[in-house]
């Protein structure tokens, strides 16, 4: 059975540069033999996490749907845009909800802990989203996610794409592809079937 990778972007914007970069990395994982499912967080109507809402109304159905998607995958490929030096509220909110208790009462953190993840980011700034990756890594570490050292940040991203599905700089494109390959390779080694 092939490694199942969930590709998720912290950007909900149409034409997202981070989504485009994620797609390149996902193709690398696919070419390495992984089965990749790509989701958009905007396709899940998640309320902002609120402990009172959870206590009063329980876990929303959309959270259960997202938890089920996470449960079906062995690894995570994450594109994390940088908003004001951090990663997006949409991505943080999704992780917060996924970590809540599952329907059977087991910890939602179990849907993340022990999984392997890789990160890419694109930004019009020079650092390419590096700060968002650092901030996200702190949260992923706390949740028990194994983050591979292979990552990619694309600075001046608004000028980097070739008009199609690739990057103008083919060496950079190869490095993004290699993030997906490295995620697949590491997940294969660490995932017990």
From TrEMBL:
Keywords: Plasmid. It comes from Cupriavidus pauculus. The keyword Transferase does not apply. The keyword Transferase does not apply. Gene3D superfamilies: 3.40.50.360. Transmembrane segments: none annotated. The lineage of its organism: Bacteria, Pseudomonadati, Pseudomonadota, Betaproteobacteria, Burkholderiales. One of its GO terms (cellular component) is cytosol. It comes from the Bacteria. SUPFAM superfamilies: Flavoproteins (SSF52218). Residues 4-158 form the NADPH-dependent FMN reductase-like domain. This is NAD(P)H-dependent oxidoreductase. GO terms for molecular function: FMN binding; oxidoreductase activity.
């Amino acid at each position: 059975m092939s490694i199942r990778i969930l590709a998720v972007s912290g950007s909900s914007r149409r034409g997202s540069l981070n989504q485009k970069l994620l797609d390149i990395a996902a193709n690398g994982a696919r070419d390495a033999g992984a089965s990749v499912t790509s989701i958009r967080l905007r396709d899940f109507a998640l309320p902002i996490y609120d402990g009172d809402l959870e206590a009063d109304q329980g876990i929303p159905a959309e959270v259960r749907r997202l938890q089920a998607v996470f449960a079906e995958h062995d690894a995570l490929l994450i594109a994390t845009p940088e908003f004001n030096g951090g990663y997006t509220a949409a991505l943080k909110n999704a992780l917060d909800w996924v970590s809540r208790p599952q329907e059977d009462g087991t910890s939602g953190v179990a849907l993340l802990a022990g999984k392997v993840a890789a990160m890419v980011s694109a930004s019009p700034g020079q650092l390419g989203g590096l700060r968002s990756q650092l901030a996200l890594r702190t949260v992923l570490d706390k949740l028990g996610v194994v983050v591979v050292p292979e990552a990619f940040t694309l600075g001046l991203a608004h000028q980097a794409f070739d008009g199609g599905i690739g990057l103008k700089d083919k060496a950079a494109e190869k490095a993004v592809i290699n993030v997906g390959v490295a995620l697949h390779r590491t997940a294969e080694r660490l995932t017990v079937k």
